[in-house]
Structure formats: C-alpha cells, structure tokens
Amino acid sequence: MQKEGQGKKKANRLIHEKSPYLLQHAFNPVDWYPWNEEAFSKAKEEDKPVFVSIGYSTCHWCHVMEKESFEDDEVARLMNKAFVCIKIDREERPDLDSVYMTVCQIMGRNCGWPLNIIMTPEKNPFFAASYIPKDSRFGSSGMLDLIPQISQIWKSQRADLENLGKELRQKIESFEKRTPDNELGKNDIQSAYEKLSLRFDAEHGGFGSAPKFPTPHNLLFLLRYWNRSKEKKALDMVLKTLDSMRAGGIFDQIGFGFHRYSTDGQWLVPHFEKMLYDQAMLALAYLEAYQATGSPRFRVTAKEVLDYVLRDMTAPDGGFYSAEDADSEGEEGKFYVWTEEEVRSALPSEESEIATLLFGISLRGNFSERGENPSGKNILHLTTSFAGLAGKLQMPVDVLISKIAQIQRTLLSTREKRVHPERDDKVLTDWNGLMIAALARAGRVLEEKKFLDAAIKATNFVQQKLKTPEGVLWHRYAKGERAIQGFLDDYAFFAWGLVEVYQASLEESFKEEAFSTIGKMIEFFWDEREGGFYFTDKYRPAELPLQKQVYDGALPSGNSVALLDLLIASRLYADPRFEDMASRMSKTFAGEIRESPAAHTFFLAAIDFAIGPTYNVTLVGDQEEKDMKIMLNQLRENYLPHAVLLLKPPERTGLGFEQIGGNATAYICRNKTCFASTNKTDRMLELLEISKNPVQ
User: Fold this and answer.
1) Which of 1, 219, 466, 532 has the most beta carbons within 10 angstroms of its beta carbon?
2) Which of 215, 210, 205 is nearest to 277 (CA)?
3) Euclidean distance between the first and final Cα of the chain, in Å?
C-alpha cells in the first residue's frame, strides 16, 4: 500500500509482505524487519536490543506515531543505530500481540495500540509503552530522548534488563497455572447480570462511561438471561442500548455499519474505523432482539449492517475484508462528516430540510478532530423518531420513511465521490467465521436468500483458500497468499459459522464439516492435562509461553466460542465426549470467571446453554414441502437460543425417526428427555415451551 510521494523513497524489508499494515510502513526510513529469526539473529550478532512495534492498518494512533516518528529521518537514524526493529500486524499475529499486551499490563503501563515493546535478542521483554511522541512532553519521554536512554541502560545495566525480561516471562507462564473450581452455574450467571446492571447507563444505554464500546456479547448474554428469568430490566437494557447505538453517530447513518466505539458516553462521536467483527456480532445482537421482541426496527438494523458488509467489505471470491480505516486524506472522520452546506447542495430543498432536522445538522457542527470548538462539521445522528418527525412535518410516516431512504441514497452517492478511507483487504479466518455465523443466522431469521448465499460462498472460500486437504486451517489470506497457521479462534469461530450455516440450510455437508473442524480444534489446542484450549497449536515449536484466553474483550474469546461449539456438538452429534469436555472447561476457568463475571459474558452465555433447558428439534420430512415450511417458519420466528435443529429427509430416517401420516414430523427432546413425536405445529411449540414474544 504505497503512499503518495513514496516512489522516490527506498523500500525496507516490509515491501515483500502481504499485510496492508506492514506495507504501510514499507517506505519508512526505519530498517524494519517482519517478525522472523533473521531479525533476532542480527540482534544477537550486533548485541542490540529489539524494538517491536505492534499495530493494525486502521489504527488512528498507529498512523500518528508513524507520521510523527517512523517517517522522521532523525528518529529512524537513532532507531536503526540502537535497535533491530520489527513491525507486527496484530491481526496477523494475535498470538504475539496477546503475549506482549500481557507484558504491558504486568508492567503497569497504559496499554493499547500502537504497542511498543523493547526486548533482548532472546525475546525477553523489558520495556513496554503505547503511543510514544517524537519529542518529550508533560513528563513523558519522546522517542528522541528515550532511545539514547535505553541505549545507555543497555550498556550499563545489561544484566538487570535481562533479569527483568526473564521475570516477566515467568510471570506470564505463571498466569496459566489454574486451580479447578466447582462448575459454573446459575449463581454465576446471576452475578454477571448484577454486575452489568450496576454499570448500565440508563440514560444513554451501554455500560460504563466514555469511551464506550458496543460489546455485543454483553447484549447476547442479557437476552439469554431475560429468556431464562423473564427479568424485564435485562431486556430493557438490551433494547435501550441497541436503540441508542442505532440513533447515534457510532452508526453510519448514510452508508450503514457500525464504527468501532464512541469516544463519548452518548454514542455521538465515534472512532471512525469499521471492523468486520463488530458488524458480525452486532448483526447477531439485532437479529436476536428482533426474535425476542418481534419489533421490526431491529430487523431493519440487522439488514442495514449486513447490506453494508456485502457492499463494502466483501471480496469478489466471497471472503470478507478485515476493516476500513478511520482516516482519509490524513484526517480522522473526514469521509463521514458533513457541513450544512454540503447537505443542502446535495439535496432538494424539502429533502434537505428533513435531513437537517432528522440528522441534527447545523451550521456550527458537532465534530472536531482535535477537540477544539466545532467548525461546521456534523456527525449525522438521529435527533428524533420517524414518527415524531412525521408529526412535526404533518406527513404520513410511510411517506417520510420513503423520503428518508431517498435522502440516504443521494447522500451516499455524493459521499462516494470523496476520497475513501483505506480498506484492510486481508481475509482472516476467525473474523470470517463470525460473519458467516451472522449471515447464516440472518438468512434463517429474515428469510433472505442473499444472506445465506453469502455465508455459503464465504464458507467455500475458507475451505478452498484457507484450509488444507487434511483439515488444517490457515489464519490469513492476502494478495493470493495464505499464511500463518491457524489459532484457536480460527477453528472455534469457523466451526460456529459452519453450525449456523447448517442450521440455516439444513444441508448435511455443513454439519459434517463442522464436526471435522471441531475435531481438529480439539486435536491441536485441547489441554488434556488441565482442560481448556491453548490459543496456539500445542505441537508447534513454542516461541512464546502457551496461553489460554478466556476474557471476552472486543470480541468473544476462543475458549468462549469453543465452549459453545462443544455444547452444540454434543447435541448435534449425540456425542457425550463433547459435553464432558465442556464441563471440564467450566471447572478450569471457574475461578477467574467468578472474579470478574461481567468480563466473561459470552462464556457465561454458553454456560446458560449448558444449564438448559436445551432442546433437540429433529424434523423429519422434505424442507420444500408446505407442512415442513410451516414448522420451520415457527422455529425461525421465535427466540430459541437453546434449541438445536436437525433435519432428516424421509428417505434417510431409520433409527425410529418416521413421519406421521406422511407429514412433516417433529421429534422434541428437552434436557435429554424425549417426547412423543408430533406432526402438529402447535404441539411442537408447546413442547418447546414457547410463549408469545413481547413487542417493544
């Protein structure tokens, strides 16, 4: 990804990489290496510490540090003299990022990206920091002062630095020593609910204060808690958050899709990058809210998010790109904000009046990149409901909605003429697994074939481009090259996607593929001795300490999704081995989850599934027949987070699964107790204990 004016600059070693982030740094005067043994061998030969900088292509402060320091000849000269320098794309190497983020946290630093680590040639870290300015300010050392300081300490206190690095490595290894506890249960789910309830922002939705992240797995957990307890407050928290985010500037009101997080507590001013995993998890949250309430507004938002992904984040061969940048033309948010004049110039007078009222557009504006007073730039957000605006304008609501749709199309067409933010076009197996799950669920819940077709096309892409004939997954595909052997998240998330594709399509091949993927996940990552899954392949030569990640951060952890995979697999394949492993995971991670239950909500959502009641729904018949479609529609329309669906065509029944009277027939088992089969839809719903959904 060559920048303007780089043609005269000399490229460094990153020019041969495929990662968009590494290619962004390929013309820095810093003598960057990718992470490889050549770099560490050079460090040993020249007796230099290693400077490792970790970031990602859509990271705003990564761009700032590059422009300020890594593109600066003076800083680069000092770095090249003092260090061997390595650049890492955290999305390509989440294993390295995780270990060194842990180092940063152990050292008590302010941790984020860019993440800068200085280590010995033996890979023992002794310094960690996030963004470092070029010049020292406000008591913090800048690069020009820091580098000579590190060089002096390396010469005069070398032994101390090496001992510190060894101690940090030992601390990381000690974190993996867990004492099994009693299985997680209803009390732990209750505790997580109470913690979330205390942190809930009743005025604006979401949890905590600024900056405010969507954390959709919290909402998925709360929907399950509400489904179990019928606690209205749990549902209210979900609906308030979903409504507030959809109305806020964190949602792209013109092109759709969600930005990464809100810098304020009101969801107004976003950090403008868009991540694939956010679109996937938020689409799932809106889909489940639609099933739980029947309210069409959640259906509409789920469709908008997924339409954005299909339009802007999908490769021609079916894989999904990773992210879109926050910046364009060197300014964060420039692509997305509008002046009042720009809106009025783009629209006829009546439509511009509607747009300024609906989206809160003013001459003064509400956005400034650097925190000074607004200077006419507006982040579009909803200031009123459609019904409220229709009343104010004395216009029928359906007419207003039609006009708003036209306004969005016109403004999108106008915006398309601007310089677009850079897109990170690498395809990651784990994030694609999440998006496959979301699209397949949408195909089933919304009965929209295009979403299921996209999920299947992406599944085929992963199978063809990122999987070997032996079933081994690769983590990254970019510019025609697959690279980096898969991590736990790749297997766990892709298996979840395959399960969702099977539940939506009921094609047996996807069920078999999910079984195979889960089997490989167990083979490569399962800890036979202590339970749980390692993040990296346990058979691979260990560059770094093996870690088990269970914390649900910006997206669910691999162990959380793997737990759900195992529990669903135990029902899909009638194999108690999977449930035994899930039970062991519950005991392995119980201690740390009980310390901070609200930080492990996806894991606890899986525990909620395990506690049950869980339903096996086996339908016998042809899914193209009318009576089968009626049954499937009822299952689709209702919120059934604990139901696993299987289809047995009439010609492949056997083992007691027969049709009654030649009609579609349901076999229902609840918590391993099976009931008499029925060909009556009402009886099927009764056995599933379905009550009418509340409309919110």
Assistant:
1) 219
2) 215
3) 47
Which residue in 421, 341, 324, 329 sits closest to 378, CA to CA?
Answer: 341
Residue showing tokens 């018949």: 621
632 sits in which H/E element = helix 626-637
CATH of the domain at 488: 1.50.10.10
Ranges of H-type helices in 114-185: 143-156, 158-175
pTM value is 0.93
Would you say residue 579 lies in a domain?
Answer: yes
Beta strands (DSSP E) in 75-114 are 84-89
Q: Is 253 helix (H, G, I), strand (E, B) or coil?
A: coil
Cβ contacts of residue 256 below 8 Å, gap of 6+? 304, 305, 307, 308
- The answer to which of 57-71, 347-361, 515-529 has the lowest mean pLDDT is 57-71
The tens digit of pLDDT for each residue in 529-547 reads: 999 999 999 887 666 788 8
> Are 602 and 561 spatial neighbours (Cβ–Cβ below 8 Å)?
yes
* Percentage of the chain exceeding pLDDT 70: 96
> Is pLDDT of 497 > 60?
yes
Q: How does DSSP classify residue 107?
A: T
The strand ranges marked E within 175-272 are 261-262, 270-271
Q: In 3-state terms, what secondary structure has residue 461?
A: helix
Cα 581 to Cα 563: distance, rounded to the nearest angstrom? 8
Q: Are residues 461 and 592 located together in one domain of the fold?
A: yes
- DSSP-derived 3-state class of residue 274: strand
Shared-domain flag, residues 249 and 211: yes
Task: With a cut of 60, say whether residue 1 has pLDDT above it.
Answer: no
Indicate if the pLDDT at residue 193 is higher than 80.
Answer: yes
Look up residue 134 and give its two tokens.
């070029």
Domain presence at residue 195: no
What's the rounded Cα separation, in Å, for the pair 151 and 46?
A: 13
pLDDT computed for residue 165 by the predictor: 80
Rounded CA-CA distance 418/253 in Å is 17
Whether the Cβ atoms of residue 277 and residue 554 lie closer than 8 Å to each other: yes
List the domain range (segments joined by +) for residue 632.
Answer: 615-687
Whether 500 and 525 map to the same domain: the answer is yes
| Residue (of 500, 469, 477) closest to 424 by Cα position | 477
Cβ proximity of 78 and 88 under 8 Å: no
Is 542 a domain residue?
yes
Q: Is residue 637 part of a domain?
A: yes
Q: Kindly state whether residues 95 and 154 are assigned to the same domain.
A: yes
SS3 209: coil
Q: Find, among 514, 511, 504, the residue nearest to 623 by Cα.
A: 504
Same domain, 304 and 348: no
Structure tokens at 104: 């940063």
* Shared-domain flag, residues 267 and 149: no
